[in-house]
């Protein structure tokens, strides 16, 4: 039997320090890093996505960063396909792979697969898109809360794509999308995995989030968003509706004042971190460690690689 490729997965909430820790651990092992971040796949969106710096990428080779334009679709299924191909190629070359990021669905897709769902119904989808424009996304989200509260609880009210997809499945099949997701059960992991989750006192984490937002703003996030808008990438794009980008776009398009944009940016980032923790805490395979436990992480990795 062909042995499964080995993956070391570093996960945790935003701002906890995943990138720095992963580089420190991966560099001595000559490993590559696959970014499991739903926003770092987009070109031109650098400041608000906290991509690894050029210096960091020079130390350890990174994959799945800057792979699509902001108006191109990207999904967990595409991540699974692309990451799987990279892992197979690196495994054949004898190179170790770290998967690092906070997009739990991408990590789950890679290690357990995705439910097949239903074929897209273009007629229903077009009708829902039209309703989103004429009635407003909030109306569709309220509808989703009524027909599939479990899915609505996991989907952000501004996530146009996922709201429409969930309603599309319900209208096409009569069953909520959460029913299919629960029934899927997922499959066996095609990899040997060591999962390390980074944890931090919540007050310290929230302080780091607030300071990172301030740093992003000082580094030119507003100018980055203005450039994107000027290049013809509208604020309605899925990529532009992400945290930070939608707040800057709302300010630039005169929907909210500056102080309110900054306040909501920080608040929504903290809420996102809380949702990430809830997601990852549900995985019993994750070994939770603090930033000061690098030696413990190294021991776990050594045991994993020699076991």
SSE map:
Elements: E1 6-11, H1 18-26, E2 32-35, H2 54-59, E3 62-63, H3 76-92, E4 97-100, H4 104-112, H5 122-134, H6 137-147, H7 149-154, H8 160-173, H9 177-184, E5 192-199, H10 202-218, H11 221-230, H12 245-252, H13 258-281, E6 287-290, H14 294-306
Parallel strand pairs: 1-4, 1-5, 2-3, 2-4, 5-6
In short:
The protein has 307 residues and is an alpha/beta fold. It is 54% helix and 9% strand.
Polypeptide structure, described:
The chain is an alpha/beta fold and 307 residues long. It folds into 2 domains: 6-115 and 185-306, Rossmann fold (3-Layer(aba) Sandwich), CATH 3.40.50.300; 122-184, Histone, subunit A, CATH 1.10.20.140. 54% of the residues lie in helices and 9% in strands. It has 14 helices and 6 strands. The chain has helices at residues 18-26, 54-59, 76-92, 104-112, 122-134, 137-147, 149-154, 160-173, 177-184, 202-218, 221-230, 245-252, 258-281, 294-306, and strands at residues 6-11, 32-35, 62-63, 97-100, 192-199, 287-290. It has a 6-stranded parallel sheet with strand order 3-2-4-1-5-6, sandwiched between helices. Helix 5 (122-134) crosses helix 8 and helix 12 packs antiparallel against helix 13 (258-281). The protein is globular, with a radius of gyration of 20 Å.
């Amino acid at each position: 039997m062909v042995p499964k490729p080995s993956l070391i997965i570093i996960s945790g909430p935003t701002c906890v320090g995943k990138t720095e820790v992963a580089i420190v651990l991966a560099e001595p092992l000559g490993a590559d890093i696959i970014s499991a971040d739903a926003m770092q796949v987009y070109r031109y969106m650098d400041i608000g996505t906290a991509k690894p710096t050029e210096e960091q990428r020079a130390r350890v080779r990174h994959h799945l960063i800057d792979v699509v334009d902001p108006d191109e679709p990207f999904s967990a299924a595409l991540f699974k396909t692309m990451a799987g191909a990279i892992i197979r190629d690196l495994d054949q070359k004898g190179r170790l792979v770290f998967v690092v990021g906070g997009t739990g669905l991408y990590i789950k897709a890679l290690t357990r697969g995705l439910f097949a769902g239903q074929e897209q119904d273009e007629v229903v989808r077009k009708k829902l898109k039209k309703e989103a424009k004429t009635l407003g996304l909030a109306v569709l989200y309220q509808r989703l809360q009524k027909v599939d509260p479990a899915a609505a609880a996991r989907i952000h009210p501004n996530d146009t794509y996922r709201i429409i997809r969930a309603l599309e499945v319900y209208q096409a099949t009569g069953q909520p999308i959460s029913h299919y997701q629960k029934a899927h059960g997922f499959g066996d992991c095609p990899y040997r995995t060591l999962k390390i989750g980074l944890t931090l006192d919540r007050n310290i984490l929230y302080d780091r989030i607030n300071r990172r937002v301030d740093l992003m703003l000082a580094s030119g996030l507003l100018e980055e968003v203005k450039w994107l808008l000027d290049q013809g990438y509208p604020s309605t794009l899925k990529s532009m509706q992400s945290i930070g980008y939608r707040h800057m776009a709302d300010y630039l398009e005169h929907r909210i004042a500056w102080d309110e944009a900054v306040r909501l940016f920080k608040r929504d980032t903290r809420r996102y971190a809380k949702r990430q923790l809830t997601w990852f805490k549900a995985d019993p395979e994750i070994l939770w460690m603090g930033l000061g436990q690098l030696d413990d992480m190294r021991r776990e990795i050594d045991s994993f690689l020699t076991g």
